[in-house]
Write a structure and sequence with these properties.
Layout: H1 12-15, E1 28-37, H2 41-53, E2 59-62, H3 71-74, E3 78-79, E4 85-86, E5 89-90, H4 94-118, E6 129-133, H5 139-151, E7 156-160, H6 161-168, E8 175-179, E9 183-184, H7 187-196, E10 202-205, E11 212-214, E12 219-223, E13 226-235, E14 251-261, H8 266-271, E15 279-282, E16 289-292, E17 298-305, H9 314-331, E18 340-351, E19 357-362, E20 365-369, H10 376-390, H11 396-402, H12 415-430
Parallel strand pairs: 1-2, 1-13, 2-10, 6-15, 13-20
Antiparallel strand pairs: 3-9, 4-5, 6-8, 7-8, 11-12, 12-13, 14-17, 14-18, 15-16, 16-17, 19-20
Helix pairs in contact: 2-7, 2-10, 4-10
Bound molecules: flavin-adenine dinucleotide.
């Protein structure tokens, strides 16, 4: 594997899609007006916006792997508006929270209008989500969160243990705040849907890792077997920005892993009170994310790591699966050891102060990404907005995005990794009960 490769056959969400053949890799020399690097939600959204607004232009879109099959197909599928934990940080300040909430709400709407306009079927479910804890020490945090949401008139309710037990089919949690906004999705279906609606003037190259960008007019973008000269380049590689030498001292990648069970049997569903689809986020940033699916499976993610490479081997994934199983069995003791059908990893991107990247980093060279804990909604919205900016037609939302705080400076390696590892280790200790 090269350093940009992460695709493998492990992800349960991707496995449920019909197989598709990758488009050929980029070879040779090309001159183009538009180039987008990275075909996750961000790059796909930018490509769609550019293509629709410039029907006579060719938009080149390249991805180091199979398009859409990075984090965009591997995430947990929580399209959130209100947030309690962002990556490993908490929110402060009512004004800041309100602004962030409003932007997230706009992002949810961007995804909703996209799927409605193009009929993308991605198991959209507005079932709400529970921020929950099994740890009495976190009850206070949840009560404060409930009050914050009330102050902001954001629909929510406190849910006590008994009611939670009936709704989720487990007596594990002691308290939760249920919020109604946002939606749950099957992430790979959204990514595949976005790929399938690209107009013919988008030319996609897969398994085509960009090795370097020589800045200039035009920018010279180099591949192992060729080069593209592009007037305007949008970099949408999220957690891979530092590997490409972009925002190295502002953002860093985290490697997350998750597991998905087989569909539960009728007997198992009965033991869970035949619960309707639900989604739980932890009151602790390092606690488990756990949800059910349309087809009665359970997905759990309770592992997050800083590692020097951006994928796990099969043996490393098997180790992570043990942690997932432990978390699952804490909640549902009756489930067997061999319940998981798939375990996978994915790369996400974090900054120290929960800020995003949305800027022109050089003349006619833009970068978007770093969505911290979230990203489904923001990446679709940022893709649309950066395309408008690159067309010199900033839309009303662009200003709101550019007014957000800039990502803070980070110390160089190896101090950065050491610092993050220490912080994650401390947070994980606090999350032991919720994992
Ligand atoms: C396990 C997991 C769970 C998550 N859960 C949630 C969740 O529940 N809710 C939520 O909102 N967000 C979640 N996220 C985050 C969310 O998935 C991301 O924020 C979102 O997918 C970002 O989309 P993107 O297009 O910017 O990046 P990506 O989907 O990572 O796409 C970037 C693309 O760039 C390509 N690339 C990288 N380097 C190069 C190169 N050199 N040349 C060419 N191409 C390159 C990659 O192959 C990739 O396809 C989760 C992430 C993970 C990993």
């Amino acid at each position: 594997m090269n350093k940009f490769e992460t695709n493998d056959a492990t992800c349960g969400w991707i496995k449920s899609l019909s197989p598709r053949l990758a488009k050929p890799a980029f070879k040779g020399h090309r001159r183009t007006k538009w180039l987008i690097i990275g075909a996750g939600y961000s790059g796909l959204s930018a490509a769609l916006t550019l293509a629709e607004n410039n029907p006579n232009d060719h938009i080149l879109l390249v991805d180091a792997n199979k398009a859409g099959e990075g984090a965009s197909s591997r995430n947990s599928g929580y399209l959130v508006d209100s947030t309690l934990n962002d990556g490993h940080l908490s929110d402060t300040g009512l004004m800041a929270y309100r602004k962030k909430y409003e932007l997230n709400q706009q992002a949810v709407l961007c995804v909703k209008s996209l799927i409605e306009k193009y009929n993308i079927s991605c198991e959209w479910n507005e079932c709400g989500k529970f921020y929950a804890t099994a740890n009495p020490e976190y009850k206070d945090k949840l009560i404060k969160f409930h009050k914050l949401l009330d102050d902001l008139k954001i629909e929510n309710s406190l849910v006590e243990q008994q009611a939670l037990s009936e709704r989720l089919g487990t007596g594990f949690y002691q308290l939760a705040v249920k919020t109604q906004g946002g939606a749950m999705i099957q992430p790979a279906k959204l990514a595949r849907g976005m790929l399938e609606i690209l107009p013919d003037n988008v030319e996609l190259y897969e398994n085509s890792a960009v090795l370097s960008i020589v800045k200039g007019q035009p920018h010279k973008v180099q591949f192992s077997d060729g080069e593209i000269l592009a007037d305007k380049v949008i970099v949408a590689v999220n957690g891979f920005m530092p590997s490409m030498g972009i925002k190295k001292n502002r953002v860093f990648p985290l490697l997350l892993s998750a597991s998905l069970t087989r569909p539960l049997s009728i007997e198992e569903q009965q033991k869970m009170n035949h619960a309707q689809e639900w989604a739980v986020l932890s009151a602790n940033a390092m606690g488990a994310t756990i949800r059910t699916t349309h087809d009665k499976r359970i997905m759990i993610r309770n592992t997050v790591e800083v590692v020097s490479k951006l994928y796990f081997t099969a043996a490393e994934l098997a180790q992570r699966q043990k942690t997932h199983l432990k978390g699952l069995r804490k909640r549902f003791k009756f489930l067997p050891d061999d319940i998981f059908e798939s375990t996978w990893s994915g790369v996400t991107c974090i900054s120290a102060n929960n800020a995003n990247i949305f800027e022109e980093i050089d003349q006619n060279l833009w970068a978007i990404g770093c969505y911290n804990g979230g990203g489904i909604g923001l990446s679709v919205m940022f893709g649309q907005q950066i395309a408008h900016l690159a067309m010199d037609q900033p839309a009303s939302l662009t200003k709101k995005i550019t007014q957000r705080p800039q990502a803070k400076w980070l110390p160089p390696q190896p101090f950065l990794s050491l610092g993050i590892k220490a912080k994650l280790a401390k947070d994980k200790l606090g999350a032991t009960l919720d994992n």
